[in-house]
Amino acid sequence: MNIYYSRWTYFLLKRVTPNRNGPKRTNRFIAGAEFVVALGIFLFWLAFFTQDVVNINDPHLKEIYMAFESAFPFADFYLSLMLIIGGIGLLKNKLFGYFFSVIAGASLIFLGILDVSFNFQNGLYSIGIQEAVFNVLINLACLSFGIYLLFAIWKSKKVGDLSVS
Predict the structure, then answer these.
(1) How far apart are the first and last CA of the chain?
(2) How far apart are CA 74 and CA 133, in angstroms?
(3) What is the DSSP string of 17-37?
(4) How far is CA 97 from the centre of its chain?
(5) DSSP 8-state code for residue 128
(6) What are the tens digits of pLDDT across the range 141-162?
(7) Using CA atoms, how far apart are residues 104 and 80, in angstroms rounded to an integer?
(8) Mean pLDDT for each consecutive 10-residue tract of the chain (165 residues)?
(9) pLDDT tens, position by position, 106-123
(10) Who contacts 19 (Cβ-Cβ below 8 Å, separation ≥6)?
(11) Domain limits of the chain?
(12) Of 131, 80, 88, 86, which Cα lies nearest the Cα of 108?
């Protein structure tokens, strides 16, 4: 018995049928990178609260920096949660993985821009080579990985792409 499916029926069946091929290689890479970034955020805060990682000699500037950084643990916890949920979803080839990965990418860009703005306004890039390199690396990591996440997810979720269940 030959059954004819209309284009819309095929579309609907394709949307609810699980993809048996598993996650794409790109999704596995993105998910792994998301897990690494989430772990990096956790390790940063572990070091921040257990060691003196701030090398600022000016006591007033150090107080301002500590107050600024103290506002970030909750936001970074939220970001890490989005990264982990997004990574799990991508590994399972589920639509929520794309959704949470986009949220994580946008959050990384926002936090990176906020950090760059604070560092420029308070001269933190010019107080010492070690502190400058540390801040530049964190800022570049946030901005570049956030932008990468947005573009990679956008590219893999084009309108009409039916490969994700």
Answers:
(1) 27
(2) 25
(3) S--TT---HHHHHHHHHHHHH
(4) 12
(5) -
(6) 999 999 999 999 888 764 334 4
(7) 8
(8) 52 47 80 96 89 74 82 94 96 91 96 93 83 89 96 70 49
(9) 999 999 999 999 889 988
(10) 93, 163, 164, 165
(11) 24-156
(12) 80
Q: How many Cα neighbours within 13 Å face the side chain of 113? A: 7
Helix, strand, coil percentages (3-state) for the chain, rounded to 5, are 75, 0, 25
The neighbour count for residue 116, using CB atoms within 10 Å, is 19
Q: Give per-residue burial for 86-101: e unless 16+ CB within 10 Å, then b.
A: bbbbbbbbbeebbbbb
The H-or-E segment that residue 164 falls in is: none
DSSP state of 1: -
Residue matched to tokens 């956008």: 154
Encoded tokens for 41: 């955020």
70 secondary structure, DSSP code: T
